[in-house]
Amino acid sequence: MTTAPIRPTTHCPTGTRANCHRWPDAAAVPAASWPVRAVTASIIGRALRRLPLWVRFADAATLGRGGPLIEVHDPRAFHARIGSCGLIGFGESYMAGEWDAPDLVGALTVLAAHAGDLVPAPLQRLRGAWAVRQPARQRNTPDGARDNISRHYDLSNDLFSLFLDETLTYSSAVFRGFPADRSLLVAAQHRKIDRLLDLADVREGTRLLEIGTGWGELALRAAARGARVTSLTLSHEQRALALLRADEAGLADRVRVDLCDYREARGTYDAVVSVEMIEAVGAEFWPVYFRTLDERLAPGGRAALQAITMPHERMLASRDTYTWIQKYVFPGGLIPSTRGIEEAVRDHTGLTVVARDAFGAHYAETLRLWREEFTARADDVAALGFDETFRRLWTFYLAYSEAGFRSGYLDVQQYLLTKGGSNR
User: Fold this and answer.
1) Angle at 169 between CA 344 and CA 370, to 5 degrees
2) CATH topology of domain 24-132
3) How far is it, in rounded angstroms, from Cα 108 to Cα 395?
4) Taking the complete model, does pTM exceed 0.90, yes or no?
5) What is the tens place of the pLDDT at every residue in 301-312?
């Protein structure tokens, strides 16, 4: 089992819900001084008073204009964590059980909708002075990327199978209507995959490169069309299961899965498909990522990408900041903006952006279905050896992500990029 980085701690507080050896920063409240807590409480109070929320503190103070409820059980720890660690502290406070929300997604959606103005403008301008910087160890160099990917995707195939559908597809589905029902998730994932394969014109005889295998469903679906697929992954767990699935489907002769960084890819392909992998690349490596697509495509080739995106201004403001998601869920991750993607393609490749389609509401529904199943299978998650803090962490991660899409702060896009010339 892989969890957050374990750091030595000299103090294991009594009464904490978090294991202090596995989760040192969730178990131990930072030793923030009274002035730090007081200033933090003042800033938080000023922000909350104008939001459509109720925030009830254990000392009986209630703030907000009405809406989803947040109950802060330990105001002292809550303010100490946020005052010391910002939004990382906010997430760790939830992991530690210091606050809860009956409608967690609803509360986080309100906060996500106001992400750009929760922190006062003067403090925003001084962000470089107070925000924690991303650690150098999480840079997505070839070695760093292997470690970053392993920390999430090698957690446990059994864990992911508990809340994903039978296709084991870990990216946004495309539904026919809302609200979506879990029984429709397989068809919705196939609809998404087929849209991407159609964009890339994948058919009999297509030489397809997939960057980011997942558990192999897209590769299997492409092979069933008659394509010859080379798929790249850095996850040992995913590769093993993807190869097993290809063999069981009778498609092993058409599907090759390499434990390989995208920068090490070789060969020429008619099409490239990459689904929600760019979020693991990092801004400094976007140029080489898109050059790889360009270099691997034959003339006339087509690349179909699916990417989570955020507003360009927020991406620029936060891209060097160390976040709770990076610390506990996706080390080294960075969500790009549509402008960032299109500038990288324009400035570093000969590819052309031909089409872009956004469907963020579908991701919110996909995440809701995953979150509800994860919650319903809590006992099964525990039986795999994942403790209560891990379960609260992942509940927060899934709800936090869903809120991002419901608020419009996050979106998801399908892109078609083409390379001049003809390969048919």
Assistant:
1) 105
2) Nonspecific Lipid-transfer Protein; Chain A (3.30.1050)
3) 12
4) yes
5) 999 999 999 999
